[in-house]
Amino acid sequence: MERSREHYAYSSLDGNNGERFIRVFKILSIANERPIRCSLKVIDLNKAPVYDCLSYTWGDPLYHELSAGYPSLVRRMTGSLDHEIECNGKMISISENLEHALLQFSKTGFISNPVEGCQNNDEGFIWIDAICINQKDEEEKNIQIAMMDRIYSGARRVIAWLGRCDEHTHPALEILQRLKSVLSKKPQVTFTDFEGAEYQSVFGDPPISSQQWNDYAAFIQRAWFNRVWIMQEAFLAKHIDVLCGSHVLSWQHDISEVAKFLQKTNLGNLIMVQADGTAHPDRKTTAYVNNSLNQYHLEAMKANGTKKALSLEALLAYSRYFLAERAQDHVYGLLGIWKSSNKVAELPEDMMIDQNMDQSSDDYAARVFTQYSWVSIRNTKDLHILSLVDSPSTRKQKNLPSWVPDYSVGFHVHPLAGILRPSSGVHRWVASNGLPPFDVPTSNLGKLPVKGILFDEIDESANTYSGVMDQYDIKSLLDLLLLYPAETYPAGCTPVEAFWRTLVKDSFRQRPANGEARDAFQYLIAGRVGHLEDASEGLEGDLDPSDLSSLFDRTKSTIEGISNKYKNSAVIPDMEAINGILEEVCNLDPASDKKQKLERDFDDISESFRVAYSCRRLFRTKKNYLGIAAESIEKGDAVWVLAGAAVPLVLRSVEDGGWKLVGETYVHGIMNGEVVKVVGKELREIDLI
């Protein structure tokens, strides 16, 4: 007998006496039965019912960029509701990935499995958003979404469905077990590459191939780990079980602890850099690698949330590590976390979702981002959130004020003071020190009124990070030093010292730069010159060797000019010293302490340069200050120090008298209130637009 194709009619969830009604789902099918048969039941959250929650992706759960053959030809699932299940004889449309999850549950009865310390889910009830919310009822969707913090925190457990197995799954799980074995030995080590002595001593026998690491990278970059809504689902969960096909993983031991190990040892960054190079071998530019270890960021957020209430600013920053189909979900997907962390039952009025805004308008996400940026500024009573603004060229949202971060885009540049604001009393930089307190605006417009000091204008700039690294143009940086038009730097140090400290934002090994950093900087210069020489001889890269040969000759001339001008400064070695360094590196015993220290110093100063300079460029101001700022800076852009801002900012004047924010900047010599001594305390009032 042919089944009815009539669609299921949802009953109302309205309550008259303060009930918090939701629907829960129960599988009735036997293994592999299609369509899957189920039932729905209405329950009241106020009565503490027993149920689980499913956390999954509507669209394709897999990461295909490392798949064999041509990733572009791989069949990808969509989030289309083109599969069906049967509920009380009627049909409900669901996505393909959700069907895979339900088929897996029907085979194993996993939903009824016991959870330690929790009441058994004997009925097998599970809450699934696509099924338990009437997707055609916008009013119900808004009410239920506002209740999701209660739904997930009230569940016995959250089941994280990563999707079906693929070609990477089994090799990845073998690497996972290897990592857990290494982790159990608690090695105190930082990995700088896959060839170093530390790596070989830990992973050398048997060696792990590049393909195996790529398999693991494909596993930890599955879509579930990148969904912005999982921030809330994982944060609020009492217990999480992770399912990948038929494999059941422990959130704590298989996901969380391993992610912490990868982050702490820098191995996660190495894996992601290698995977990115494998997935995009023809990419011509090198950019800041936004580490995809979202498992680590989830746990960091949960750990921070147990110590103190999470601020809206911190949550907005965390959300940029994740992806969302709707840009506004980078805000809406974390409001439940804010409520839970701040221990409030309801959002304050200024954080309520504005139901009057037209969600179909092109600028809806921009208006949402602006609204919550205002809320964050009023909460923090400063302008620290401006440090989350990337270069204008990276933005996706239309009509977004220049001062509002685009939360839907991952970090292209590493904020100078870090992703989250430093703890109170340990700020590295307070450029506005000595200025009057920040006046918190009361309006809620697209313009942000601020007060500050116009310090200087950008006069000339050097090449970008990709230009230095991929086009071997170290000369562009050195030219600014060679042509520096003064004998001393305005802050009292030498131009050479200001130069090298600026290029690493005065930071080394995540601490203020010291004598070790100064000594290591020569290895950065020698390494880049050595790479240029190899490329000019056709030994690496794919640029024209004849063009690079000319660049190499001009670079040598610049280096000799610097050596003569600055009396053979050891920080910028001359060509004889550079050749000596490169020869020493080649001839040292790989196992010697000296070779290992030299390689470690080179790797660490290179990482300091990468974090500071990626997606930025070096500039000199008219007053001969050196700084680094967004790649999109132009001659004539102004360096401002604003009341309430931790670091200086580059602003661009526009015709109507307002100013656009280009981005934050490190300017050597004005990072801790020195601007007041140089310029004075008189402030100008301007609008950021």
UniProtKB/TrEMBL annotation:
Pfam families: HET, Het-6_barrel
Chain ranges of the Heterokaryon incompatibility domain: 51-233
Protein name from the UniProt record: Heterokaryon incompatibility domain-containing protein
